[in-house]
Amino acid sequence: MSQDDLLPRVTGSTVMTHERGFHARPSIMLTQLASRFSSRVWIGLAEHGPWTDAKSIARVMALKAPHQTTVFFAAEGPDSAAAVRALVDLVQSDFTNAKDPDP
Amino acid sequence: MSSATASLYLRGIAAAPGLARGPLFRLDEVRLDEVRLDEVRREAALPPGARLPPAGASDRERLELAIDAACAELTALMQRPGDANAKALLAFQVAMLRDPVLTGPAFAAIADGVALECAWLQALALQIRDYDSADDAYFRARAADLRDMRDRVLRASSGTALLPIPPGSIVTGTDLPPSRFLEMTWDGGGIALTEGSTSSHVAMLARAWGVPMLVGLDQAILQGHGEALLDADNGLLITEPDARTAAEFTLRQRRTRKAGSAAANELAPPFTTADGERVQVLINVADQTELEHLDPACCDGIGLVRTELLLRGRQDLLDEAKQNDAYCRILRWAAGRSVTVRLLDAGGDKPIGGYTVDAEANPFLGLRGVRLSLVHREVLATQLRALARAAAVQPLQIMVPMVTLPEEMQQVRQMLDAAIHSLHKDGLECVRPPLGMMVEVPAAALTCDLFEADFFSIGSNDLIQYLTACSRDSRPLGSLRDPLQPAVLRVIRGIVDSARARAIPVSLCGDMAGDPHCISALLAAGLRSLSVTPAALPAVKAAIARYRHAAGDAGRPP
Fold this sequence. Notes:
The complex is a heterodimer.
Chain A: H1 2-6, E1 9-15, H2 24-35, E2 40-44, E3 51-53, H3 57-62, E4 70-76, H4 80-92
Helix pairs in contact in A: 2-4
Chain B: E1 8-11, E2 13-16, E3 19-26, H1 30-33, E4 34-36, H2 39-45, H3 59-78, H4 84-97, H5 100-111, H6 116-132, H7 137-158, E5 160-162, E6 170-173, H8 178-183, E7 190-193, H9 201-209, E8 213-215, E9 227-231, E10 236-239, H10 243-265, E11 271-272, E12 278-285, H11 288-291, E13 301-305, H12 314-317, H13 320-334, E14 338-342, H14 370-373, H15 377-391, E15 397-400, H16 406-425, E16 435-439, H17 442-445, E17 456-458, H18 460-468, H19 486-502, E18 506-508, H20 516-524, E19 529-532, H21 537-546, H22 549-554
Parallel strand pairs in B: 3-6, 6-7, 7-8, 12-13, 12-19, 13-14, 14-15, 15-16, 16-17, 17-18
Antiparallel strand pairs in B: 1-10, 2-8, 3-9, 4-5, 9-10, 11-12
Helix pairs in contact in B: 3-4, 3-7, 5-6, 6-7, 10-21, 13-15, 15-16, 20-21
């Protein structure tokens, strides 16, 4: 794991204001976005974890995060800073890049 | 089978209104339903992109191909015309099936020598159990989605397919998987389930697509595929009806259809009774986005603006400018029509982090609505200032939720005085809006003559929950919660009489107002203003048009 130590670990957090929390549509958007980065990306509901793989919809949905929770992101890898920034932006924009209502 | 004695009357809970007549289609008849497709037909039935497992394929390969086939089927369904809800639901199933976290345990078990079917069922069972035990109804309802995708993959792996449900059928069974609903051609027909829930995906789809649906149907062993009448308006399924019942039903269907199309042609106000009396019909709104696709001319105004969703997050609660902006946008949409904004009604089933109290033993009987507002006075002051400023742009009225004692109204009134005073001092334009009371706590409902209020708005959902000691979401309590029972109607009549005696306006803004079945009782109780969910407007308009004073009076509460 010594190689991992050299990679930048970046964290960020934001309050999720989405009306219903991490439901199907936001979870799909979040995991799809996270999967675009080569870094390992995690999501958590507390500052120091436990961390969940943000690229897995099964894991993100299993968090059952309600709205008004503070969500934390961490990433490790070459594009970790961009990944965290993009995920925080997505949550802050209230998942507005798509107009479909939540099922 | 066609004799009158074979006829069954089964009660259920309406998940989507409407009438349907057709042959029963029983989902529980799995064996008859499932057909083994021969290889040729299978090739033809396979969606593009799906491949048949080669002869002698390993279980791992067969599962991979089955998952691919299921995803291809779901993706093909997504291409069919449908609403955004349907597409999101299917996209969710595809995303889950593509997630190695979900499917990995099944492949691991297969590698350990477990048979495909067993491995797949076990892997999904863990996930399904997790969702089944969720606190939140939304996540609980996802268990049905997982079962749906589990079964689709199993069918694909065993080379079986479900017979298509003939259009126009009354579909019965324990539950209907959402993707099966989407596979059907809904031209007539309806759904009657022994389990299911009004907040399931299928219920949501049924409402959106106008498919009559009942859930929680009395357990009964339905036999045969005879004709059935589904009266979701009255929560009834009638099997093997006699000729007369069937004829009457068809007549009703025709009349409703006529009223429905008449209503669609002329959705807009005025809403008038058969006697020509005018009824004010307003809409309930939770979010500005709801208004985007709605023509303000469809209603007489907004009877309830819920501000819990408008103010997303703690920072919004103290952001006067943002709130003012949100209210102004709604007022602009209403273009001079009546608008009633409810003060923040958090607590109960609507928690706001950092604002509501966590872990109350019984949140519906705890700190919620105005009780909470009077604890967080700075939040209340901000909202009152924002509302008074918006009222300077266009008139609006403020409604106070969960009031129990006259002192609470007094305190809010004083807070409003102070807000106006502070706005004047800041040199900001403002108008003092009328301050009304939401009547939903029985203590207030029974003594509303003692309250100082500019208007009353009856919140029937909570009023019924508190009057009947029945939680709003408990299915087995269905009939105890009947909104038309004498206790509820008497209390409503009392509130209306009290408002009339003081010549202040009174309205009702719960689910009852949008239920065509309740309209005549509400009008008979003296109400002439109702606030409903926008989707209910056509049915409400038709129900009001059917109402005659004398007919309604016969149904007066004792």
